[in-house]
Specification:
Elements lengths: L3 H11 L8 E3 L1 H7 L2 E6 L9 H10 L3 H6 L1 E4 L3 H13 L3 E5 L5 H9 L3 E4 L3 H15 L2 E2 L6 H17 L3 E7 L4 H13 L4 E7 L4 H8 L22 H10 L2 E5 L1 H13 L7 H11 L11 E6 L6 H8 L2
Parallel strand pairs: 2-10, 3-4, 3-6, 4-5, 7-8, 7-10, 8-9
Antiparallel strand pairs: 1-2
Helix pairs in contact: 1-3, 1-8, 3-5, 3-8, 5-6, 8-9, 9-11, 12-13
């Protein structure tokens, strides 16, 4: 398991290349929930999500020879863009394997950053294609979540939260494979041990929730959610161990609750979030998270804002 030292090292490694995203308050969401709500706006990060943090840290820690040969990854969208962007900064080739049904907008964004995009089958089939291409071309795999360097990069979000919001009591984070929450939870708990970290998953993709319940990383036979950024087919082993140790609770939210949170973020917070980026707020708005007893603030991570016009229109319609 990584430590806070690796997360601090990651910040030194990627610092200057990526944004330190802002934390903003919301009187509206505070009144609605009884929390002192702050939004950590990772939708304003390079590429529109937190993903470049882990991708860039991962790639900069590769052996120079492996890095020069190129990298490969798999993603439903945001990690694809993160790897493509990082590869463009480092001037190395990148291949991104995506399920055939992946968001065309996200696939095109990865191409625009310079990556070769391969669309193939469903998510299990895409993993098989990735392994084939990795072996054929000798590419280094940049894992989207189950990798120490990726986790440490995502953990820089947690460092910024504690430094910029010293009174933080509760941090609410969406969960896909677990890269973001494991990095954030480790950083927050090391720096403020009394704080709560609460994870959020869609009802239709409860990989980490199921993992904790059964005591081992789970694989999902079926994924059914509009939050493609949280629809990982399995929970990472490294991520599971960190979540089991540092995360206080995992809540499930419906797609309708996610849509409602997207609408509220845009109409009242003036924040554009994709479904995965709105899931954490959806859990808070549901009333299932008790306000801090000590009066500290609650930081909600808006993890991304990469939403197509078609998806946005669907989610905004009532």
């Amino acid at each position: 398991m990584i430590t806070i030292r690796e997360i601090r090292d990651a910040r030194e490694t990627i610092g200057g290349r990526l944004h330190r995203t802002p934390i903003v308050g919301s009187s509206t969401f505070s009144k609605m929930t009884g929390h002192a709500v702050r939004l950590k706006l990772e939708n304003l990060q390079k590429t529109g999500s937190f993903k470049p943090r882990g991708a860039l840290n991962n790639m900069l820690r590769l052996d120079p020879g492996k890095r020069a040969a190129g990298v490969i990854t798999i993603s439903a969208g945001n990690h694809a863009q993160g790897v493509a962007y990082a590869a463009s900064l480092l001037k190395i080739p990148a291949v991104v394997v995506m399920p055939a049904a992946a968001s065309p907008t996200k696939a095109q964004a990865a191409r625009d950053y310079g990556a070769e995009v391969v669309l193939h089958g469903d998510m299990p089939g895409a993993f098989q294609k990735l392994e084939q291409l990795r072996q054929e071309r000798g590419l280094a795999f940049v894992h989207p979540f189950d990798d120490d360097a990726t986790i440490a990069g995502q953990g820089t979000v947690g460092l910024e939260i504690v430094e910029d919001q010293p009174d933080v009591d509760t941090v609410v984070v969406g969960i896909g494979g677990g890269g973001l929450i494991s990095g954030v939870a480790l950083a927050v708990k090391e720096l403020r041990p009394g704080s709560r970290v609460i994870g959020v998953e869609p009802v239709g993709a409860p990989g980490m929730h199921r993992s904790v319940a059964q005591g081992s990383p789970a694989r999902l036979d079926r994924l059914d959610t509009i939050a493609d950024g949280l629809a990982a087919p399995f929970a990472g082993e490294r991520n599971f161990e960190i979540v089991r140790r540092f995360v206080d609770d995992i809540l499930l939210v419906s797609d309708d609750e996610i849509r409602a949170a997207m609408r509220m973020l845009l109409s009242r917070g003036k924040v554009l979030a994709e479904p995965a980026g709105a899931a954490a707020l959806a859990a808070l708005l549901s009333g299932r998270i008790a306000p801090p007893s000590g009066g500290g603030s609650t930081v909600v991570v808006v993890s991304g804002g990469n939403v197509s016009m078609e998806m946005l229109a669907e989610c905004l319609s009532v």
